[in-house]
Fold this sequence. Notes:
The chain is of the alpha+beta class. Helices cover 35% and strands 12% of the residues. The protein has helices at 3-9, 23-33, 53-62, 64-75, 91-95, 103-107, 140-152, 167-174, 203-206, and strands at residues 45-50, 110-117, 156-157, 180-189.
Amino acid sequence: MEFTDVVRTTAAIRQFTDDPLPDDVLERILDNARFAPSGGNRQGTRLVVVRDRETREKLADLSVTGWRRYIAQKRIGENPWNPLHGTAVTEEDLVTVDVPRASPLVDAAVVVVVCVDLGVVAALDQHLDRIGVVPGASVYPFAWNILLSARNEGFGGVLTTMAIAEEPKIKELLAIPDDYAVAAILPLGKPAHQPTRLTRKPVSEIATRERFDGAPF
Length: 217
């Protein structure tokens, strides 16, 4: 596909057909994705390719904790899991939430668990009085490259993080070392429906000249 078509049509795919994603195609997807940049070119990203259905079902079950709070907070008008604002949701509220299963993790042809070696990331924001985001620069470009490469091959997926609320259990399930963090879980497969046009804010709404409060670019 043309580059412009790939970046403008790589949608979040959550529904898949029963078509397989062969190993040779997946290897090609990952082979292209690995050229993503990383801090100091340390290349601390590690991937776990999960095809076993029972394991994928367990990952889906581990997503319940994240989804339960997400749904409960949405119900009362909060921004779910936002670190700047507390929540009025109680444990009693969470118990009453009916959580749909994270079906993409079960229905996809394969699930790729994206991990990052915390021993090599440069967290320049670690002493700031806010949640850290800079270490993501060493892993999320890789995750997005996987989705772009999958789209180029006629497949699709979505970056999910709901199960990461239960990261210790994910690590135990997949034998991930303590000094690695789980950054994303990507179900991949043949899209049941592929959007051909995405809607996004125009450049003039997201970019300004010289300062945050500058003129629109």
